[in-house]
């Protein structure tokens, strides 16, 4: 263990000595965050509806309950209802033109008053982040409505016909709760709901995480050069003659890269929260989880570049290729939501797309820790693959 720590400290000392490079990796992301943020500010000013599209049919639109559920879903800040024919909506979900399709079956409202309630019909990819978010939103609205119905059942005397009147009062009580939590306007950092359900997005909600991730990959250049320099000055060969194993050497280098990238993440995320007024710290555990797994993933990539490259020129080439390829395909420059479904699928082959999903779930969609698990798992998977490949290459030297 001491060998691993010593190697990591040695690498960090070498990196810190080149403080100009580290400072560059802090200044450039900030500069490009402002550049890309203002470049896309025109789109933000047009108040585009960024909610998830959900096909919708209400076969129970004559009942009070069916009307109320449709009204509540229409006001959602997460989903946008799009009416259509049932067969066409299902085809659109299959083709991924719609994220989901929801049908309120005929008689749904009356069934909730009985002992055999009907279920809403939902077509959605429950394994995707957007799918889970939509399911949660619909469940919240349906459960709220069901609670009002149960309240009306209790308060309505037997053999009376004023159930709908009591239900209206119960639904009104949901809209005017006895306790209201208020928040100062200047504490709201990213999403500001408007009267029509759309959200006003902070200019930097996309460019900040995008540039943090892009320049974290760019920073691999410095880390990989340390490994290449060790090989060129025979320090690596001398180290292998000691009792230190190859795995310890590799883990020591890996630990130093993780620490450097994580420190870069923490500094830039703090800048984003305090200066750019992004709500990174509104969900600190989710932000930390994405930052940590992204650091592990990018560090694994840096380790692989260091073991593959034979000289400084190859380190620079490999690092720049990875930076531009991953940033371009992964949505660090242009949001993947603005591209087609095919490009989005290709983009998610890269780890940066998953990291962007994790950060934007927090910054744009206002989701919590539950939305970070899937992107974090994908990033951790990439980290394992990169590390194993680096270990295999290192063993062949």
Write a concise keyword list for the protein shown above.
elongated; 397 residues; two-stranded antiparallel ribbon; D-Maltodextrin-Binding Protein, domain 2; alpha/beta; 2 domains; 17 helices; single chain; 4-stranded mixed sheet; 6 strands
Order of helices and strands: HHHEHEHEHEHHEEHHHHHHHHH
Number of strands: 6
Distance between the termini: 23 Å
Percentage of residues in helical conformation: 55-70%
Residue-averaged pLDDT: 83
Structure, described:
With 397 residues, this protein is of the alpha/beta class. The protein is built from 17 helices and six strands. It has helices at residues 2-17, 19-39, 41-45, 64-74, 86-94, 108-113, 129-155, 163-175, 207-218, 220-232, 235-240, 246-274, 284-308, 312-329, 341-347, 351-363, 373-395; strands spanning 52-58, 79-83, 100-104, 121-124, 192-193, 199-200. The strands form two sheets. The chain has a four-stranded mixed sheet with strand order 2-1-3-4, sandwiched between helices. Strand 5 and strand 6 (199-200) form a beta hairpin. Helix 9 (207-218) runs antiparallel to helix 14. It is elongated. It starts with a helix and ends with a helix. The model is unreliable at 42-46 and 183-200 (pLDDT under 50).
Summarize the entry for a quick read:
With 397 residues, the chain is of the alpha/beta class. Helices cover 64% and strands 6% of the residues. Helix 2 (19-39) packs antiparallel against helix 9 (207-218).
Topology at a glance:
Elements: H1 2-17, H2 19-39, H3 41-45, E1 52-58, H4 64-74, E2 79-83, H5 86-94, E3 100-104, H6 108-113, E4 121-124, H7 129-155, H8 163-175, E5 192-193, E6 199-200, H9 207-218, H10 220-232, H11 235-240, H12 246-274, H13 284-308, H14 312-329, H15 341-347, H16 351-363, H17 373-395
Parallel strand pairs: 1-2, 1-3
Antiparallel strand pairs: 3-4, 5-6
Helix pairs in contact: 1-12, 2-9, 4-7, 7-8, 9-12, 9-14, 9-16, 10-13, 10-14, 12-13, 13-16, 13-17, 16-17
């Amino acid at each position: 263990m001491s060998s691993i720590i010593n190697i990591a400290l040695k690498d960090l000392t070498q990196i810190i000595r080149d403080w100009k490079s580290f400072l560059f990796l802090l200044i450039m992301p900030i500069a490009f965050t402002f550049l890309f943020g203002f470049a896309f500010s025109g789109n933000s000013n047009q108040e585009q509806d960024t909610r998830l599209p959900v096909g919708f049919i209400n076969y129970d639109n004559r009942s009070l309950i069916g009307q109320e559920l449709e009204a509540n879903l229409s006001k959602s800040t997460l989903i946008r209802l799009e009416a259509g024919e049932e067969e066409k909506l299902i085809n659109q979900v299959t083709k991924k033109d719609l994220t989901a399709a929801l049908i309120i079956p005929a008689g749904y409202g009356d069934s909730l008053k009985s002992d055999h309630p009907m279920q809403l019909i939902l077509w959605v990819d429950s394994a995707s982040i957007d799918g889970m978010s939509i399911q949660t939103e619909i469940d919240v609205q349906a459960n709220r409505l069901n609670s009002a119905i149960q309240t009306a059942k209790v308060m309505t005397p037997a053999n009376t016909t004023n159930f709908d009147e009591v239900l209206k009062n119960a639904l009104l009580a949901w809209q005017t709760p006895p306790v209201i939590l208020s928040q100062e306007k200047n504490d709201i950092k990213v999403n500001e709901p408007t009267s029509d359900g759309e959200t006003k997005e902070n200019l930097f909600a996309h460019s900040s995480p995008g540039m943090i991730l892009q320049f974290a990959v760019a920073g691999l250049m410095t880390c990989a050069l340390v490994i290449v320099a060790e090989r060129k000055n025979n320090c690596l060969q001398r180290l292998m003659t000691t009792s230190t194993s190859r795995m310890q050497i590799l883990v020591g280098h890996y630990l130093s890269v993780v620490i450097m990238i994580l420190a870069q993440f923490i500094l830039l995320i703090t800048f984003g929260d305090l200066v750019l007024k992004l709500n990174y710290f509104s969900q600190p555990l989710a932000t930390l989880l994405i930052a940590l797994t992204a650091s592990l993933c990018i560090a694994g990539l840096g380790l692989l570049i260091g073991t593959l490259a034979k000289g400084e020129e190859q380190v620079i080439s490999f690092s720049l290729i990875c930076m531009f390829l991953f940033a371009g395909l992964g949505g660090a420059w242009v949001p993947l939501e603005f591209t087609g479904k095919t490009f989005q699928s290709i983009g998610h082959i890269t780890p940066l797309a998953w990291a962007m999903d994790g950060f934007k779930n927090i910054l744009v969609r206002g989701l919590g820790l539950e939305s970070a698990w899937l992107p974090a798992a994908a990033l951790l998977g990439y980290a394992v693959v990169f590390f194993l490949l680096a270990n295999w290459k290192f063993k062949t030297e």
